[in-house]
Design goal:
heterodimer; A: D-Maltodextrin-Binding Protein, domain 2; D-Maltodextrin-Binding Protein, domain 2; six-stranded mixed β-sheet; three-stranded parallel β-sheet; 16% strand; B: 361 residues; mainly alpha; 14 helices; 70% helix
């Protein structure tokens, strides 16, 4: 019998069909990811290592970022050690086949959850780790405060990209003219924008933040409030392994719950001994509470101890303390006006 | 004596002029009206280009310092290269393991240098090469007593060297077999060789890389799957073999059939005929084509970026993406260009020497 991902994939269909005829050995069987990871002793996490803020090495070659940290969190949850993770660097083209073929156990790679990806590629998306979205940056000197005032603007776009489609749709829907200027890559786009060749720079908000931060005078530029397209970034697993899906899901929630109940990577050891019953339960003091998920009692403790709570995670990688310098905005917890709303433990 | 090129006649020799350097130069630069015009225009262009280039690259350049100082300076920011040199050379290899990459680089470069000295050429270089490649792979990937290096940690300069210095020597015997197979009188050899050559020469290298990197994990069961670097190496080797085969075929076809017949008449058997008579000439004739392949493959290793790996150039691009140091791509690319140019220049001048040496026979 073939695992479902081999039968239902659409973009990988040609590949898989050839692979199936070539050899009927199935790379990974469903329902076994947890055992496979434990036996291997290391988590294989598909990620990007060239996207600052999500996965990017510092000058010493040590990778960091939102996705990298979540990979570590999953390793800490499953194997008790955040360092037992192998990052498989993937491009936007290779990320989905790598998950389908079983080369990676999970994708934390800036994947936007969409209906088509969930249904036609045979994947399941976990909870959103970062609420991103396509934004618009303009020079302040333009005197524009709303995107609808951009009639006749020159827009730098990367040809064939999603953001090109979205911004075209947006201008047409609002009955506005615009002049697209095609740029091959973001480096060219950046210099074209800063030299004034185009009025509008459009991309994911997380990226706009990092671009703005390297301007000669960042205050000369402003990111407008409008979000042209939603971009909820989430981990992805293969269909057919419900236990693994639950593990990934709750690993995403764990740092959010920690922030909700006031646990940080610094005070987590103190909270082990004091702290309310709810906190004790979360940190694994109530024996067999987490039995159903197939992990050790202290998995959530390991997660928070190694990468911190969601607030720390965000500040370190995307927030004001990082080179990206983004506001928390939608990525606040619900009680601070954001969208992250981790479900309760019981 | 085997005669593989026509005996040089008097006017065939190098045009070494009998007059002095000054007269030679003045004839070259101002010999005719056209030459004078070209010389003057070139001089004017150089006058326009060189001083600003010098100011940017050397005069006003900043050799060390912080990113703020760099942004304030008007010249190049070489401090960027200094800041990122670990990332560029070693990729994401942890500091504790960098000695392994250094050792692998030193080993590969010195064995390559050794192989370039004609005096030490012997059959023993073959096992030496194979041993070196094995040790370099062991150092870079780990296992057998060394810590295993994780996929993401293999990158930078060692990847560029490992891929080009491994794929080409490994591809050579296969390429030779394919070239001979294509000339074979046995239809099966001929068809298979032609098929393999045309397939991998016809398909873009990127496609072959994608197949090796994406398809193999589908086909092989988990645990059997070789590391990403090995899969990339496999793709490079096959494609290199196809190109080498064609370069060698050119050499093979330039050998007059009479020579083989003459050797047979002298009582030499098939393998001896190939080894002693044909091959030395074939390789000599194929040197320009082979060097071409070496130079282009050395640079083509950068294509592994498309499967998510970082080689030397990839690491430079990666470094330039740091938000804290953004905007210094040009410095990075200039550095890369200098590196690739000097490596390829050494290679081509060596090949030119080799050709001159070969033509003495």
């Amino acid at each position: 019998m073939l695992p479902s991902f081999l039968l239902t994939s659409s973009s990988g269909r040609a590949l898989t069909a050839a692979a199936v005829t070539a050899c009927l050995a199935t790379p990974v069987l469903a329902d076994q990811t947890l055992d496979a990871v434990k036996e291997r002793g290391v988590l294989k996490c598909g990620t990007a290592l060239d996207v600052p803020g999500f996965g990017y090495p510092d000058s010493n070659g040590v990778p960091g970022g939102m996705d990298v940290d979540y990979c570590k969190a999953l390793a800490a949850a499953v194997l008790g050690d955040a360092e037992k993770v192998e990052f498989i660097p993937l491009t936007t083209t290779t990320r989905f086949p790598a998950l389908q073929s079983g080369e990676v156990d999970v994708l934390f790679r800036q994947v936007t959850t969409t209906f088509t990806r969930d249904t036609s590629l045979g994947f399941l998306s976990g909870p959103v780790t970062v609420f991103d979205g396509q934004g618009i940056m303009v020079p302040k000197a333009l005197g524009v405060t709303k995107a609808t005032e951009l009639d006749g603007a020159t827009v730098c776009v990367t040809p064939g990209s999603n953001s090109e489609l979205t911004i075209g749709d947006y201008f047409r829907a609002n009955g506005m003219e615009f002049k697209p200027i095609s740029m091959d890559n973001f480096d060219e786009m950046r210099s074209a924008f800063f030299s004034g060749r185009c009025d509008v720079f459009t991309s994911d908000r997380t990226y706009l933040g990092s671009i703005r931060s390297v301007a000669e005078n960042p205050d000369d530029y402003v990111v407008l409030d409008e979000t042209l397209a939603k971009s909820p970034l989430a981990p992805v697993v293969r269909q057919g392994d419900d236990q693994w899906y639950n593990i990934v899901r709750w690993t995403v929630y764990a740092p959010m719950i920690a922030e909700e109940i006031g646990i940080t990577s610094e005070n987590v050891d103190d909270k082990l001994s004091e702290g309310a019953p709810m906190i004790q339960r979360f940190l694994g003091k109530q024996a067999e509470f987490f039995e159903g998920i197939g992990l050790e009692d202290d998995w959530a403790y390991n997660v928070v101890k190694s990468i911190g709570n969601y607030g720390e995670l965000y500040e370190r990688n995307l927030g004001a303390g990082s080179a990206i310098g983004l506001d928390r905005g939608d990525n606040n917890l619900y009680f601070n006006g954001g969208l992250h709303y981790p479900p309760p433990l019981l | 004596m085997i005669q593989s090129r026509p005996i040089g006649s008097a006017e065939d020799g190098p045009r070494r002029a009998s007059f002095g350097l000054v007269r030679y130069a003045s004839a070259l630069f101002f010999g005719s009206k056209l030459n004078t015009a070209i010389t003057l225009i070139s001089a004017a262009l150089l006058w326009l280009v060189l001083p600003p280039l010098y100011d940017w690259g050397i005069g006003d350049a900043l050799w060390s310092g912080t990113v703020e100082e760099c942004r304030a300076a008007s010249g190049a920011c070489w401090a960027f290269i200094g800041e990122k040199i670990n990332l560029i050379v070693f990729g994401m290899l942890p500091a504790d393991d960098r000695w392994r990459a250094v050792l692998a680089i030193v080993l590969m470069v010195s064995v390559m240098a050794l192989c370039m000295v004609p005096r030490v050429w012997s059959v023993w270089l073959v096992p030496l090469w194979i041993g070196t490649i094995g040790v370099a792979f062991w150092l870079m990937l780990g296992g057998f007593g060394l810590d295993r290096v994780r996929t993401e940690q293999v990158g930078g300069l060692p990847v560029t060297l490992l891929l080009s210095l491994t794929a080409l020597p490994l591809g050579f015997p296969f390429g030779l077999a394919l070239a001979l197979g294509r000339q074979s009188e046995f239809w099966l050899f001929r068809w298979v060789s032609t098929g393999v050559i045309e397939l991998f020469r016809g398909a873009p290298l990127v496609a072959t890389l994608f197949i090796a990197s994406i398809m193999m994990p589908f086909v092989l069961p988990e645990g059997m799957n070789p590391p990403k670097l090995t899969r990339a190496l496999l793709a490079f080797t096959i494609v290199a073999a196809a190109y080498i085969a064609e370069a060698l075929r050119g050499g093979l076809q330039s050998i007059p059939p009479g020579q083989g017949e003459a050797a047979a008449a002298l009582g030499l058997r098939g393998w001896h005929r190939l080894w002693l008579i044909t091959l030395p000439q074939v390789i000599r004739h194929s040197i320009p084509g082979l060097v071409n392949i070496v130079v282009s493959f050395f640079k083509d290793t950068s294509l592994i970026i498309v499967i998510g790996m970082t080689d030397f150039l990839g690491a430079i691009q990666l470094a330039a993406r740091d938000p804290a140091w953004a905007g210094f791509n040009i410095e990075g690319y200039v550095f890369a260009a200098l590196f690739y140019f000097s490596f390829c220049y050494v290679l081509t001048s060596y090949a030119a020497r080799l050709e001159r040496r070969a033509s003495h026979y």
